[in-house]
Amino acid sequence: MKLANRLSAIKPSPTLSLSAKAKALVAQGVDVVSFAAGEPDFDTPDFIKQAAIDALKQGFTKYTPTSGIQELREAICAKFERENHLKFAPDQVLVTVGAKQAIYNTFQALLNEGDEVVIIAPYWVSYPDMVQLAGGKPVFVETREEDGFAPDPEAIRRALSPRTKALILNSPSNPSGAVFSRAALEGIAQAVRGHDCLVLSDDIYEKLLYQGEFLNIGNVAPDLLPRLVVINGMSKAFSMTGWRMGYVAGPKWLTSGMQMIQDQSTSNAASFAQKAAVAALKGPPDIFVPMVEEYRARRDMVVDALNSMEGVRCRSPEGAFYVLPNVSGLFGRSYKGTPVTGSIQMSEILLNDFRIAAVPGAPFGAEGHIRLSFATSREQLRKGLERLREFTASVR
Ligand SMILES: Cc1ncc(COP(=O)(O)O)c(C=O)c1O
Questions:
Q1: pLDDT of residue 17
Q2: Which CATH number, 3.90.1150.10, 3.40.630.10, 3.40.190.10, 1.20.1630.10, labels domain 5-43+287-394?
Q3: Tell me: the pLDDT tens digits for 156-186?
Q4: Which of 14-23, 260-269, 296-305, 342-351 shows the lowest per-residue confidence on average (mean pLDDT)?
Q5: Least confident span in 9-13, 24-28, 211-215, 261-265
Q6: In this predicted model, what pLDDT tens digit does every residue of 64-83 receive, in sequence order?
Q7: What is the distance in A from the centroid of ligand 1 to the CA of 308?
């Protein structure tokens, strides 16, 4: 018996597999410092947990509508209007099992065999695989570190074709932490005008912003609203990764199709987690402040340390909790007599010899880089950075 052909198009998530490998080493008693986690190290705020406990105690434990409870869909619409100045009706919103399912279902509902999705590199590892699982073809637009990883509108124009069904944006970005400026978003909007494709905006890191104000492309280009799909969720902003609570808003024809996919797969996201999400979205607007300040301090510490290492160069990210240092200065040199050849091999050396879990840039479309998450304590960060310094100093 063999697995289905569709599996041959995709690869295991390198972040999940590296995290699992690091966790297995820790379980064996090995002192690994993990820079791999894509999740906040803060706990879910108590008032959110309490809302779930109350829901459980009140017996709110049954199936809900697949699209989510009305109360939550209304709270999501109110959030969009209050915080993002975007207007959606509750019947344009679908509550999903994490933002991941929202993106997956978008492609499942949208793509036919060979349809194209434009993805800006560096990109979140799961986008190309999700496109391929739906029979689609990812088309990549390269960006440059010196441009803050913002795409050249001309390059987007070249990537668009009659088969393009969507362009996906992710700002703040995983893995670069880059935030697209108003001018960059205007350039992107200009490039997609006149082209019949959707614009998917994955805003999952919107609250983790170290300067300026969060902008969705719909804010700078209201004419794109009829084809805008916004993806978001509770994981990163509210430290709720394990709750699996995401949502999407977009044109009703699309969200209805997505709901059909969800009807026949997972049905609704967990009932009591939906009640917790209502509490989170209606909660105090300033709960993010201490978390963002802590991340900012860690970011500065990590960027300074990286820039003082031989062969390493790191731009300071404007958002999210990742840095994407350029380590290509170490390539071609030798470690213990073996040439350092690329980010995947470097990550293996770092884990095996220096007990650091750092994700290689290659699967994010960022060869020449590694991705380090600073969603871990300052003490762990210091220890890991010292080990990384030992590695860079031992490369000749
Ligand atoms: C860019 C991006 N989008 C979406 C997700 C999915 O988040 P979740 O499914 O936990 O809501 C992640 C998680 O790492 C991410 O980095």
A1: 76
A2: 3.90.1150.10
A3: 999 999 999 999 999 999 999 999 999 999 9
A4: 14-23
A5: 9-13
A6: 999 999 999 999 999 999 99
A7: 31
Mutate to test the pocket of ligand 1, among 205, 235, 240 (most ligand atoms within 8 A of CB): 235
When computed from its CA atoms, the radius of gyration of the chain, rounded to whole angstroms, is: 21
How far does residue 100's CA lie from ligand 1's centre (Å)?
6
Token digits of residue 368: 């020449």
Model confidence at 284, pLDDT cuts 50, 70, 90, reads: very high
Question: What are the structure tokens assigned to 176, written together?
Answer: 């670069």
pLDDT over threshold 80, residue 37: yes
Centre of ligand 1 from the C-alpha of residue 204, in Å? 6
Distance CA 363, CA 126 (A): 9
Q: What is the 3-state secondary structure (H, E, C) of the chain?
A: CCCCHHHHHCCCCHHHHHHHHHHHHHHCCCCCEECCCCCCCCCCCHHHHHHHHHHHHCCCCCCCCCCCCHHHHHHHHHHHHHHHCCCCCHHHEEEECHHHHHHHHHHHHHCCCCCEEEEECCCCCHHHHHHHHCCCEEEEECCCHHHCCCCCHHHHHHHCCCCEEEEEECCCCCCCCCCCCHHHHHHHHHHHCCCCCEEEEECCCCCCECCCCCCCHHHHCHHHHHHEEEEEECCCCCCCHHHCCEEEECCHHHHHHHHHHHHCCCCCCCHHHHHHHHHHHCCCCCCHHHHHHHHHHHHHHHHHHHHCCCCCECCCCCECCEECCECHHHCCCEECCEECCCHHHHHHHHHHHHCEECEECHHHCCCCEEEEECCCCHHHHHHHHHHHHHHHHHEC
Give the residues surrounding ligand 1 with Cβ less than 6 Å away: 38, 98-100, 124, 170, 174, 202, 204, 233, 235, 241, 246
Task: Record the tokens describing residue 138, joined without a space.
Answer: 């990812």
Please state which of the four CATH numbers 1.10.10.10, 3.40.1280.10, 3.40.109.10, 3.40.640.10 is assigned to the domain occupying 63-281. 3.40.640.10
In the chain, where are the structural domains located? Answer: 5-43+287-394, 63-281
